[in-house]
Amino acid sequence: MTSFINPKAKAFEYFPNPSIDASLVSANNQTVNNPKPQTASPAVIVKKTDNGYVLEVDGKAFFINGMNWGYVPIGTNFNYSLWKQPDDLIKSALDAEMSLLKNMGINTIRQYTGIPPKWIQYIYENYGIYTMLNHSFGRYGLTLKGNWNPNTDYANPLVQEILLKETAEMVKEYQNTPGLLLFLLGNENNYGLFWRGAETEDIGCLIEQRRQ
Description:
- By secondary structure, this protein is of the alpha/beta class.
- It has helices at about 85-105, 115-125, 155-175, 205-210; strands at about 1-5, 10-15, 30, 45-50, 50-55, 60, 65-70, 110, 130-135, 140-145, 145-150, 180-185.
- Strands 1-2-4-5-6-3 form a 6-stranded mixed β-sheet, with no helix packed on it. A 4-stranded parallel β-sheet has the order 7-8-9-12, with helices on one face. Strands 10-11 form a two-stranded antiparallel ribbon.
């Protein structure tokens, strides 16, 4: 995977497939809803224009008609994982769900890590639906040296090391997967922070320092 900032084009360019030439893709006004599935991984660009930011997939403007998606049968709870079930059950569930989403005009779903790459590809190649893969990035706590910590301290060097390692491993596992649109880190992680005393007053100063 190659990610970089092109200062001349003012665009963030993300190429899941390293064989793709990392050159700026020209903008156009075409909106893609349910693109024809392709075998190769798409070139994805977030480009800054005079009218704001534009997401492009293979050189075409891509408007996300998306939703969060998960599969939790009645009678189960958060411990249930579709991806631990037999392949025929997974396929049956995906065929039923994704056909409905496609008919709704959905072109992108957000899922948490855990889904095997082959099912991201299956969803894309059979229904033209992309996946935004979400790593919680310590949102709901983190295990440090064998102990569970419900509040993630992002200033802790060990926390930083673990999260960056997990992120790198995620990218390595899923790169070049057809149908993978974007990686998403965290989920409203600011609500999971725990502040004490004057620490909250330092936030403004820290933001200003980073700007400078």
